[in-house]
Amino acid sequence: MPSKPAPIKKSPAKKAAEKAPAPAPEPEPAPVEAPPAEAPPAEAAAPAEEAPAAAPPAAEGDGAPVAPAQDAPAAPPADAPAADAPAAEDGAAAPAADTADAPADAAPAEPAVVEEPPKAPTPPPPAVPTSAPLDVSVEDVNDSSLTIKWKTPETIGDSGLDGFTIEYCKDGTTDWVVAQEELTPVNRYCIKNLTAGDLLNVRVVAVNPGGRSEPATLAAPVPIREVVDRPKIKMPRNLRVRVVRQVGEQINLVIPFLGKPKPVVSWLKDGQPLDTKRVNIRNSDKDSIMFIRTSQRDDSGVYEMSVKVESFEDKAPITIQIVELPGPPTGVKLVDSWGFNAALEWTPPKDNGNTEITGYTVQKADRKTGEWFTVLDHYHRLTATVSDLIMGNSYSFRVFAENKVGTSERCAVTKAVATIQKTGINYKPPEYPEHDFSEAPKFTTSLSDRAATVGYTTKLLCSVRGSPKPKIEWLKNQMVIGDDPKFRKLSNQGICSLEIRKPCSFDGGIYTCRAKNAQGEATVSCKLEVKQIIISEKGK
After folding, report:
1. Alpha-carbon distance 22 to 99, whole Å?
2. Distance CA 325, CA 403 (A)
3. Which domain holds residue 301?
4. pLDDT tens digits, one per residue of 295-304
5. Helix (H) or strand (E) holding 177
6. Per-residue pLDDT at 65 exceeds 70
7. What percent of the chain has pLDDT over 90?
8. Looking at residue 247, what DSSP letter applies?
């Protein structure tokens, strides 16, 4: 090891300069916090003996001219604070190596904590314009204004939608004029202060932070003028629902409409032009007639009638359904047979006649006679049990399909035959206890008070029931009426009558009908008054 150099005697000014922190090797200082005021322990300082050897390289590495301490403070190092560094007394910056010769109680330089600058945030993706508005159409027009409407674009994006701008220009030019000062947020706008007779093209542009979308332009230029009568289809009530016809029938639909000047009428079927070979269209100023001479299944569909006056249009759909008899069920089979029963099942027909199946008809036939009999009619299920079959006979079954037109012409027949086996049966008739129908007489209709005229036959009536049949007796003033020819007594099916032939004033009184049998008896009474006809002297 090399020998330690002899200590060097320093001047007071140099000692003061050595107490200051050594200049940083880097020319640019870094802002750091100030060191504590109190010096750390003496052991933290470098040994004074090693200072002379390290001082010259540090001074040469700095490369800066020495300046007086009071004119400019020494530059702080990158790892030490610079604001609290004391000024050097001898007017020169001490080399970094001289700090090794500082006294033990001098404050050494501490490593500075360097704060990293914050990272810049990730910039958001650039905004993208929306797609073009949809379905731009005319809502209203007159001689000074034009109202249009449209639908919101399909694609708006994350940047949202600021609004819409409306532009117009005369037909044949490209000088587009913005109709409003500010963006409109709604999907409808009225362009005002227009000149009558102009032919205008109009377009709508959606605007968002990404810029303008592709413009959506009206399909045709719009003339600025008052429409006398807008087109309107007056659909008859019976055509507002489904029109059902059978195959082969004639179709003749008359649909009136309004519009002035004369509207342009057009027809579509399922969104496609009509087949003029199948459908005839006749248009007048007030109505349109659709005529099909002989309808077929292919004529079914949704027909749309459209009337148009300039930029105004009205549409009305008509649903036509051509139906016919259904086909037979696709298959019927005998599932099981037991006792006097047979179970069947079948599947719906492939061809329902262009309308829903409303039911099925099930028939059976005895193999001996071969005659078919209907056992189930308008049956809605796909399984059935046929009962009350005859023992010892064999049966075949067939099924027809039904819809609103009628029953199918063909049917599905079972391949298997249901045979009802003969089995020994011991029939024991049920025993019923005899019912006692005995009943005491009871009058169901009583006698009513009567008033008779002298010389005019009258009759008393009542009704009675009882079991056994009761015996009927008639009484006058509690006296039994015997076989007097003046009185005629009848009793038939419980109806009892007493006829009094040509009564006199003495025949009046209380009449009683009495019914008796083994269970008891019952009576009913009435009052009979016989009046005399008085003839006045004038009448005589």
Report:
1. 7
2. 7
3. 229-323
4. 999 999 999 9
5. strand 177-178
6. no
7. 51
8. T
